[in-house]
Write a structure and sequence with these properties.
Blueprint: H1 18-27, E1 34-37, H2 44-51, E2 57-61, H3 65-76, H4 78-87, H5 92-104, H6 108-121, H7 149-161, E3 166-169, H8 173-183, E4 189-193, H9 201-204, H10 211-222, E5 228-233, H11 236-241, E6 247-254, E7 260-268, E8 278-281
Parallel strand pairs: 1-2, 1-4, 2-3, 4-5
Antiparallel strand pairs: 5-7, 6-7, 6-8
The structure holds S-adenosylmethionine.
The site of S-adenosylmethionine has 21 residues, from helix 2.
Length: 296
């Protein structure tokens, strides 16, 4: 099993949540669930759970047409995608070509592959960033540092083998959630919401959220008839808008820039397993999160 199941390096990717979801599924006696990510990105948790056979299907949604193009072309133009992976050189001149395609191609395959290419070549997996090692490649790490073709091909093939179990959408998350109510009524869905980060969202994703969007999401979640789990970066806004809910913290080892321990907030309408990594956070006990006002 590769270290992470998703071929995308996603800023804030949640492959690390897979074990946590496994425990949630066990604790709540769920069986054979369909795992849904309305803010899919690299779908780190969904892919791991699917490939390990812990959920039977996944439904992915992302508003970003480039992220959608990546998943779409991998699932629907699989042979062509693999051929591009095998034959496209990893170099700064090719990076420039892929960047042009990323900005202007009308072919979903070209757009999807360019998104993947930039994601693997760029610093931190950030689509708007420069390549690892810089344009002049005068650093210890080079543009190909995160582009191990045989490993990536293995990851992609494992996903292609399960493509009948993956459904994809390209909608705004709130519309998508509302559509689930009518189209999947009575089905065994487990929804995992990982919205854009509050603090760094603007830097990391083309589609970020403002305060109103976070509040609107809260309203949609409160109408959600399915089991759901929401994760957030720790911020006073979340304590304010989810004050009726039990809020837990989860410690994570992150590597957005350097490895460090980060803390995320978990809110859910389910029983959540608590241990040394996941604890209830008492209201008012978030002085360290209060330093900065909301400024997204
Ligand atoms: C924190 S990332 C998700 C990371 C993901 N959990 C992973 O493991 O890779 C948030 C994602 O939400 C998407 N997004 C932002 N606004 C959205 C919206 N209104 N509706 C749906 N997706 C949105 C972004 O494009 C981004 O891919």
């Amino acid at each position: 099993m590769p270290v992470t199941a998703s071929p995308l390096r996603f800023p804030g990717g949640k492959a690390k949540y897979a074990k946590f979801f496994e425990k949630i599924i066990e604790l709540n006696n769920f069986d054979n669930m369909i795992f849904v990510e309305p803010f899919a990105g690299g779908a780190g948790a969904a892919m791991t759970l699917l490939l390990e056979g812990i959920v039977r299907e996944v439904i992915l949604n992302d508003i970003d047409p480039k992220i959608y193009a990546f998943w779409y072309s991998l699932l629907n133009n699989s042979a062509e995608f693999l051929e591009l992976l095998r034959t496209t050189p990893i170099s700064v001149p090719e990076w420039r070509k892929q960047k042009r395609k990323f900005n202007s191609s009308e072919s979903i395959l070209e757009l999807g592959f360019a998104t993947f290419y930039l994601n693997r070549c760029n610093r931190g997996g950030i689509l708007a960033a420069n390549p690892i090692g810089g344009i002049n490649q005068n650093s210890k790490y080079m543009i190909s540092a995160r582009f191990n073709k045989p490993n990536l091909e293995r990851k992609i093939r494992r996903i292609i083998d399960l493509k009948e179990s993956i459904t994809l959408f390209n909608k705004d998350a709130l519309d998508f959630m509302n559509d689930l109510k009518s189209n999947y009524s009575g089905r065994e869905l487990l929804i995992y919401l990982d919205p854009p980060y509050i603090r760094k969202g603007k830097l990391l994703y083309y589609n970020h959220y403002n305060e109103k969007n976070h509040i609107d999401l809260r309203a949609t979640i409160s109408q959600c008839p399915f089991p759901w789990v929401l994760s957030y970066d720790s911020h006073p806004l979340i304590f304010r808008i989810y004050k009726e809910h039990k809020i837990r913290t989860k410690s994570l080892n992150y590597s957005l820039s350097k490895p460090r321990v980060a803390e995320e907030l978990i809110i859910s309408n389910l029983k959540i397993p608590e241990d040394s990594n996941v604890r209830e956070r008492r209201q008012g006990n978030y002085a360290s999160s209060r330093r900065k006002p909301y400024n997204n």
